[in-house]
Structure formats: structure tokens, C-alpha cells
Amino acid sequence: MIPAMFFVVGPLRTGSSLITRCLDDHPSITCLCESEINRALFGDYVIEHHSQRMEAHGFTLAETFRLLDGKKQEDFGSLTQWYADVFPVLQHLYEKPDAIILGDKSPDFARSPAIVAHLAANYPLVYTVRDPRAILASIESQDDATPEDKAERWGLLAMNYLAWKPHLNAPNVLKVRYEDLVTDPEPTMYFVYRFLGLSYSTRFLEPFPRKHPERFLWSTTVDFETGLNREFDPTRLDSWRSKLNPAHLDRILNDPVLVEFMERFDYE
Predict the structure, then answer these.
(1) How far is CA 4 from CA 30, 121, 241, 245, 246, in A?
(2) How large is the greatest C-alpha to C-alpha distance in the chain, in angstroms?
């Protein structure tokens, strides 16, 4: 049986992992956090990356390949069937037998124009955004990334925005600012849950041990040792002011795509 579905599709470093954790905390939702099945079946066919992400979700390698068996590349029927096959496994893994909605989150959906068009035409989408200055500061602060890695990750912001831009005003797309999520989490998640047709739940604020917490990618989202949620931290919002130099700011303000992004989402 194919479950009701939604997707979180905003650029990287926009709080998409945090909102995915909050969504997954709802009793009626199971939300993958970058399964990368989209990249396994479409575009660059990165099976190894998909397998690594599914291991973080609690799957064995054998189980990951069993779920891929018989699926075809560039085939939306196979993509839909993969989600249908994985849903009952997730319900069992995360002890959520009453979950009725499945989500997946990835900034990499934007890599495939076919997937963008398919998702935009068929599913509720949550598009997360953040001040580009904070995104750049976050990327530049990564100690484990080469300059080439950082340049590639920075370029993905404009790529993602341009891919989804034609669809952002559609009624099935909800835009969520990271700044609103961390400063006003309860009203923000109220609107997200309502957008998905669900009643409000405060479970995302509760300190319970989440199953396989490393699936949420960042220890600022959830403690990897205990699975407990991290507190929302609005003090990080303006940290870019002390991290970026004039050259960094020029890189943003001289890029017409990023200026448009800032104006569209009310970043001064």
C-alpha cells in the first residue's frame, strides 16, 4: 500500500534536518532524512551513498539492496514503489505502527529536473530557507571540507532555488524560514502540521530518545548518544556577522540570484 507522502526540498544548511526531526516526531509521520533514493534511481546513480544513508536509518546492507531489487532507473513507478516498500519497515524500526504519512527530505531532489517536476505536480512540499549569509558562514566553518567542497556546496544554494523557483507559489508548497523555526517553533510547526492535514502535536519539544538519531545528520538537531532533542538556539542566527568578511558579503550581494532569494524571503 502506497502511503500518503510529502517532501522537504529546501537548500542545504536551511534547517531542513531540524524540521525533518520535528516532523518525524509527530505520531502520524515517519520522515526519512536524506534517504537519497532519488540519487540512487535518478541522475548520478550513487548506490553507495544511498546505502550509507539507509544504514544511518537503521537498515542493513542486505535490506537496502533487497528494497532496491527490481527497481528501474529513471522510473517514477519504481520510486513510488520503493517508498511503499520501505514504509512498513520504518514503522517497525521507529516503533510507530500508527504512522499514516511518509516523508523524505533532501536538497538533492533539485539535481534532477524530472524529479522536481514530478514532486511539484503530485505532493505537498516543504521548502526551507535561511539567510544566505548564515548559510555561507556555516559552510565556511566546516573543518572537514576542502575549498573545492565548500565552493560546490555554496553553489548548490542557487542551483536549488532556481530548480524550485517556478513552483514556489503553488498551493502545495509551504515555505518555512529557519529563523522562524528556531525563534517561534510552536507556531511554525503548527502551520507545518496543518499544511499536512494533521492536528498539532508538541511531541517535537519533548526529550524522548529518538531511534537511530544519526539519521538526522547534525548533532545540533539531536544528541547522537542519547537521541534527545537539542534546544532551539536563536543565538546562532546572527553569528555570521562575526564570521564573514567583506569579500564574503560581496560574493552574496553581487550575485543577482542570491539577491533575489534574499528579497523574496524577506532577508534585509
Answers:
(1) 11, 14, 42, 46, 47
(2) 54
**Closest listed residue to residue 214, CA positions, set 57, 40, 1:** 57
Sheet holding 4-8, edge to edge: 29-31, 101-105, 4-8, 125-129, 173-177
Q: How many residues does the chain have?
A: 268
pLDDT of residue 169: 98
Which portions of the chain are predicted below pLDDT 50? none
The cell numbers describing 69, all together, are: 531489487
What's the CATH number for 4-264? 3.40.50.300
CA 75/CA 114 separation, integer angstroms: 10
**Phi-psi region at 206: left, alpha or beta (left = phi > 0; alpha = psi -120 to 50):** beta
Per-residue pLDDT reduced to its tens digit, 159-197 = 999 999 999 999 999 999 999 999 999 999 999 999 999
Report yes or no: 54 and 172 within 8 Å, Cβ to Cβ.
no
Residue in this structure with the C-alpha cell 544511518, named with its chain if needed: 56
Assessment of whether the complete model's pTM goes beyond 0.70: yes
252: three-class secondary structure by DSSP = helix
How far apart CA 171 and CA 123 sit, in angstroms, is 11
- Label residues 32-56 b or e (16+ Cβ within 10 Å = b): bbbbbbbbbbbbeeeeeebbebbbb
Residue 246: CB partners within 8 Å, gap ≥ 6?
A: none
Give the pLDDT score at 58. 98
Burial of 210 (0-12, 13-18, 19+ CB in 10 A): buried
Look at residue 235 in the predicted model and tell me its pLDDT.
86
The pLDDT value given to residue 104: 98
